[in-house]
């Protein structure tokens, strides 16, 4: 029969279940409509470094009746884009193992291939890598149920280095411009993976040389006992602290902090204690307050240093200790004044 006759039949049922059945019938009859139309207005994101996109209100419940499309386009043409899903993933559950209602979808723009469509919350989607320097992401939620936390996708630039046939024009990683190599280095999570990428033919020898003790390392790291532990930034979650003018963790770029544009460090960033937060307790006569450090200490961090070799090809690799300032105590002071 028609939709009207089915709804009237369901109204004849009594109790709360009749409303649920009406809701279910309307939803099933409307499922035949196209789920995702070809996007007329997609958001273009120019990718020159790592970043992320997420469902609206992540990590809280996303809005209903929403269609969003992102196209990630790398600035360089000879790079790939890798997508990594955050562990906090949850969309409306599938029906009969098919994502019919709410889902996130990844497409390869070069040929229109759908790399995957995901929903539910039982498993986190696997990593996805583009075939070229572009990739498209769609998010769809229908007009009924929404879930939380939604999704967050981290994107990373990769430099292709595994090819079926070596191209004479392809440069080894160590010969790439430092800025491009700097972006590639950010995608690795261990020193071994990085050395294997930089030196695929002799990475084991390089790794042994790297960890062979020398008097310089022993002198700083073990005699002075001032080196602080390097934190794995990939495992950290960014949190907002609601305290006024206190030491807190900041991610600091070593190249910017040390003003060394001729060198690459790994990890690219380290966590340091720096003063931050609003000054809510300044004297009423002060028009502008500043959160400044009142106690500063210098700590040494062991990092991997990559520098171009003078006059020859390749990179010089060494473990070195870099000094970074850490703020141990902070206070609010008036601008141009020493009193709080």
Automatic annotation (TrEMBL):
It is found in: Secreted. Belongs to the PDGF/VEGF growth factor family. Signal peptide: none annotated. This is Platelet-derived growth factor C. The lineage of its organism: Eukaryota, Metazoa, Chordata, Craniata, Vertebrata. Its main location: secreted. GO terms for molecular function: growth factor activity; platelet-derived growth factor receptor binding; protein homodimerization activity. It comes from Gopherus evgoodei (Goodes thornscrub tortoise). Residues 245-337 form the Platelet-derived growth factor (PDGF) family profile domain. Keywords: Cleavage on pair of basic residues, Developmental protein, Disulfide bond, Glycoprotein, Growth factor, Mitogen, Secreted, Signal. GO terms for biological process: animal organ morphogenesis; bone development; cellular response to amino acid stimulus; digestive tract development; fibroblast proliferation; platelet-derived growth factor receptor signaling pathway; positive regulation of cell division; positive regulation of cell migration. Residues 41-158 form the CUB domain. It comes from the Eukaryota. GO terms for cellular component: cell surface; cytosol; extracellular space; plasma membrane.
């Amino acid at each position: 029969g028609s939709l009207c006759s089915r709804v009237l039949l369901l109204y004849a049922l009594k109790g709360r279940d009749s409303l649920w059945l009406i809701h279910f019938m309307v939803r099933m009859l409307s499922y035949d409509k196209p789920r995702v139309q070809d996007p007329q207005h997609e958001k273009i994101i120019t990718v020159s470094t790592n970043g992320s996109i997420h469902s609206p209100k992540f990590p809280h419940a996303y809005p209903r009746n929403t269609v969003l499309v992102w196209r990630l386009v790398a600035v360089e043409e000879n790079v790939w884009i890798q997508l990594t899903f955050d562990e906090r993933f949850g969309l409306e559950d599938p029906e009969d193992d098919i994502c019919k209602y709410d889902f996130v979808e990844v497409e390869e723009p070069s040929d229109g291939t759908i790399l995957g469509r995901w929903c539910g919350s039982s498993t986190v989607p696997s990593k996805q890598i583009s075939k070229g320097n572009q990739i498209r992401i769609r998010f769809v939620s229908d007009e009924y149920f929404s879930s939380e936390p939604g999704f967050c996708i981290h994107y990373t630039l990769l430099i292709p280095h595994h090819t079926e046939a070596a191209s004479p024009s392809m440069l080894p990683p160590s010969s790439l411009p430092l800025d491009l190599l700097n972006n590639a280095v950010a995608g690795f999570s261990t020193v071994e993976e990085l050395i294997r990428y930089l030196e695929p033919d002799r990475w084991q020898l390089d790794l042994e040389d790297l960890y062979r003790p020398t008097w310089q390392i022993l002198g700083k790291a073990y005699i002075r006992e001032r080196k602080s532990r390097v934190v794995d930034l990939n495992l950290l979650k960014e949190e907002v602290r609601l305290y006024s003018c206190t030491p807190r963790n900041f991610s600091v770029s070593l190249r910017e902090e040390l003003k060394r544009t001729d060198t690459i460090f790994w990890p690219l960033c380290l966590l340091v204690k720096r003063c931050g937060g609003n000054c809510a307790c300044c004297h009423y006569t002060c028009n502008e307050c500043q959160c400044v450090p009142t106690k500063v200490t210098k700590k040494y961090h062991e990092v991997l240093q990559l520098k171009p070799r003078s006059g020859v090809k390749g990179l010089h690799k060494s473990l070195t200790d870099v000094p970074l300032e850490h703020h141990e105590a902070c206070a609010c002071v008036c601008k141009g004044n020493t009193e709080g």
